[in-house]
Design a protein that fits this description.
Keywords: Membrane, Transmembrane, Transmembrane helix. Helices cover 76% and strands 0% of the residues. With 234 residues, the protein is mainly alpha-helical. The protein has two domains: 35-87; 93-233. Helix 1 crosses helix 2, helix 5 packs antiparallel against helix 6 and helix 8 (187-211) packs antiparallel against helix 10 (227-233). The longest helix has 42 residues, at 20-61.
């Protein structure tokens, strides 16, 4: 007999793939992978051309490179490729890295971190995370022109680098046995409510930035209520 939990998980995965948020997320993932592969391939090509050009110039200016020169060129090429591939590897994002991120790259790095946490979340929360990812992509473009020293930048940084990671990490710290609802509201519900607040905040921030209303963005304070955190500590 099929596992009912597995059936539900498969159905949720299918709905995610065909949802607008799921399609948008998949398209962004493909664009990022293609762009990263193109950059890496371009760097490898440039390194290869540089090594061969150096070998040719040596042969023209000094004389045949011989077996020793050929071996040296091959070693240089392997070393260059190794450095490029090592530098192009994906680095795992962490909340600590988010705090240290520059403002312009913070939305993209937050989205990358969120994507890695998605599998830990209940399906409704995972769908909210997908919607947040779409908003983060748009916000990244807006923040590129924002002065990091503006008070408005602190509001954005606090939400993305502190409050949002703490919301999800707080949920992850709750043992599975304690995630069942208590008095009608459990950690799952509180996580969904918190992510809903984040989603609304991101939409408001984007509107304020588009309108150039930095004062409103800097002075309006909304904080997440992490009730499940209190339950975990209790």
């Amino acid at each position: 007999m099929p596992d009912p939990h597995r059936v539900v998980a498969d159905a949720e995965a299918l709905l995610h793939r065909v949802s607008p948020e799921g399609r948008a997320l998949a398209q962004r993932e493909r664009r990022k992978r293609n762009a990263a592969a193109f950059r890496t391939g371009k760097r490898l090509l440039v390194a290869t051309i540089a090594v061969f050009a150096a070998a040719i110039l040596w042969a023209i200016a000094i004389g045949p490179i011989g077996m020793t020169g050929f071996t040296g060129a091959l070693v240089a090429l392997i070393a260059a490729w190794s450095i490029i591939l090592f530098a192009s590897r994906s680095i795992e994002e962490t909340p600590e890295r988010l705090v240290q991120s520059d403002l312009a790259r913070l939305p993209q790095r937050t989205e990358t971190w969120l994507r890695a946490q998605r599998q830990l979340l209940p399906p409704p929360a995972a769908r909210l995370v997908d919607g947040i990812g779409v908003k983060l992509e748009a916000l990244g473009t807006q923040l590129a022109a924002l002065d990091p020293n503006e008070p408005a930048a602190n509001a954005v940084r606090k939400l993305l680098a502190e409050e949002l990671p703490e919301l999800i990490q707080g949920y992850a710290r709750v043992p599975l046995s304690l995630r069942k609802a208590r008095d009608g509201i459990g950690p799952d519900v509180q996580l969904i409510q918190g992510l809903g607040v984040v989603d609304e905040e991101l939409a408001r921030m984007s509107e304020d930035l588009a309108a150039g209303d930095l004062r409103k963005l800097a002075t309006q304070n909304r904080y997440l209520e992490l009730k499940y955190k209190d339950e975990a500590e209790g």
